[in-house]
C-alpha cells in the first residue's frame, strides 16, 4: 500500500517541478517551441506559451484566443525575433514550423477590433473601472473584518499591534518600539546606515520581517536622520515606496516600509520557505 506521506525527496521534486521555467515544469517536446506573447492593446509582454511547430496559423490564433480574448477573426499575428524585429506575418494555412521560430521569439497579436475589451487600456488601466466603495454602515455589519479582529485583540491587550501579532505567530521575541525624544541631528544613524546597501537581503525588527533593501538615505516628511527603505517579501508594509507623495523606490502597495537602520539586519536572509519542514522526513 502506498504511503500517504510525502518524503523530503518528494517535496524537493515538487518544488523543482513548480519552479521549472515555462509550461509549469513540463519537458519541452522536440516539435514545440517556447514563444513570448505581446499584444497591441497591452503594454507589457504578458506570457510565455508553448506552440507545436505543426500547428497552422489558424490553430495558433485559436490557442492565443484562450489566453488574451481577442477573436480569431480580429487577430493578426506577427512572428518577431527576441529584439522585436519582424520575421513574418503568420498565414492561416501555413504551419508555424515553416517560419523556423526558436525559443525566445515573440508572437505579437494585433487586435483589429476597435470595440475589443482590451482596447483603450480597459484591461490595464484600473482608473477606468468603477470602484465599489462600501459605506461605514455596511462595513460595520460584516463579520470577520480586520477592524473587529483588531478591536477584539486590543480589548484583551491594549498594546496589541500587527507587528506584535506577527512576531507571536512566528514564535519570535517582540520588543515594543520605545518612545524617543525628537531627533534634531540630520546625520542621526548615518553610521548605522553605512553598512547597508541597496539590494541587500535583510530582516527587520520587530517581527523578523524579511525583504530587500531598496533605499538608504534621508526622507522628506519623516523625522531627521537616515532611513532604510525595504520591500518586504509579504504585504506587511505600509506603502508602495513613496512617502507623503515623494517616491523613493517602486514596489506593490503594502509591501514597502521606511525603518531606522538600527532595526535592519543585512545578510543571508532568504524568503521564508513554506515547504521547509526542518529535519522532518515526512509530513
Automatic annotation (TrEMBL):
<dbReference type="GO" id="GO:0043014">
    <property type="term" value="F:alpha-tubulin binding"/>
</dbReference>
<dbReference type="InterPro" id="IPR036859">
    <property type="entry name" value="CAP-Gly_dom_sf"/>
</dbReference>
<dbReference type="Pfam" id="PF01302">
    <property type="entry name" value="CAP_GLY"/>
</dbReference>
<keyword id="KW-0963">Cytoplasm</keyword>
<comment type="similarity">
    <text>Belongs to the TBCB family.</text>
</comment>
<dbReference type="GO" id="GO:0031122">
    <property type="term" value="P:cytoplasmic microtubule organization"/>
</dbReference>
<keyword id="KW-0143">Chaperone</keyword>
<dbReference type="GO" id="GO:0007021">
    <property type="term" value="P:tubulin complex assembly"/>
</dbReference>
<feature type="domain" description="CAP-Gly">
    <location>
        <begin position="225"/>
        <end position="261"/>
    </location>
</feature>
<dbReference type="GO" id="GO:0005829">
    <property type="term" value="C:cytosol"/>
</dbReference>
<dbReference type="InterPro" id="IPR000938">
    <property type="entry name" value="CAP-Gly_domain"/>
</dbReference>
<dbReference type="Pfam" id="PF14560">
    <property type="entry name" value="Ubiquitin_2"/>
</dbReference>
<dbReference type="GO" id="GO:0051010">
    <property type="term" value="F:microtubule plus-end binding"/>
</dbReference>
<dbReference type="InterPro" id="IPR000626">
    <property type="entry name" value="Ubiquitin-like_dom"/>
</dbReference>
<dbReference type="InterPro" id="IPR029071">
    <property type="entry name" value="Ubiquitin-like_domsf"/>
</dbReference>
<dbReference type="GO" id="GO:0035371">
    <property type="term" value="C:microtubule plus-end"/>
</dbReference>
<dbReference type="InterPro" id="IPR045172">
    <property type="entry name" value="TBCB_Ubl"/>
</dbReference>
<dbReference type="GO" id="GO:0005634">
    <property type="term" value="C:nucleus"/>
</dbReference>
<protein>
    <recommendedName>
        <fullName>CAP-Gly domain-containing protein</fullName>
    </recommendedName>
</protein>
<dbReference type="GO" id="GO:0007023">
    <property type="term" value="P:post-chaperonin tubulin folding pathway"/>
</dbReference>
Amino acid at each position: 500500500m502506498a504511503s500517504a506521506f510525502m518524503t523530503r525527496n518528494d517535496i524537493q521534486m515538487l518544488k523543482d517541478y513548480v519552479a521549472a521555467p515555462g509550461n509549469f515544469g513540463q519537458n519541452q517536446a522536440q516539435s514545440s517551441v517556447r514563444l513570448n506573447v505581446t499584444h497591441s492593446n497591452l503594454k507589457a509582454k504578458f506570457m510565455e506559451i508553448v506552440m507545436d511547430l505543426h500547428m497552422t496559423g489558424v490553430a495558433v490564433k485559436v490557442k492565443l484566443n484562450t489566453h488574451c480574448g481577442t477573436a480569431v477573426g480580429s487577430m493578426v499575428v506577427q512572428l518577431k525575433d527576441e529584439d522585436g524585429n519582424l520575421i513574418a506575418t503568420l498565414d492561416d494555412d501555413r504551419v508555424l514550423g515553416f517560419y523556423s521560430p526558436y525559443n525566445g521569439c515573440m508572437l505579437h497579436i494585433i487586435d483589429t477590433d476597435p470595440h475589443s475589451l482590451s482596447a483603450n487600456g480597459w484591461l490595464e488601466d484600473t482608473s477606468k473601472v468603477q470602484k465599489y466603495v462600501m459605506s461605514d454602515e455596511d462595513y460595520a455589519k460584516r463579520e470577520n473584518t480586520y477592524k473587529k479582529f483588531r478591536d477584539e485583540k486590543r480589548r484583551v491587550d491594549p498594546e496589541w499591534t500587527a507587528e506584535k501579532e506577527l512576531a507571536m505567530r512566528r514564535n519570535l521575541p517582540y520588543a515594543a518600539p520605545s518612545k524617543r525624544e525628537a531627533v534634531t541631528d540630520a546625520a542621526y544613524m548615518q553610521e548605522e546606515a553605512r553598512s547597508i546597501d541597496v539590494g541587500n537581503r535583510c530582516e527587520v525588527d520587530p517581527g523578523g520581517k524579511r525583504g530587500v533593501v531598496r533605499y538608504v538615505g534621508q526622507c522628506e516628511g519623516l523625522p531627521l536622520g537616515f532611513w532604510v527603505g525595504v520591500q518586504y517579501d509579504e504585504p506587511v508594509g505600509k506603502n508602495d515606496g513613496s512617502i507623503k507623495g515623494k517616491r523613493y523606490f517602486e514596489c506593490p502597495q503594502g509591501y514597502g516600509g521606511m525603518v531606522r537602520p538600527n532595526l535592519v539586519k543585512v545578510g543571508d536572509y532568504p524568503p521564508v520557505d513554506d515547504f521547509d519542514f526542518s529535519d522532518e522526513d515526512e509530513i
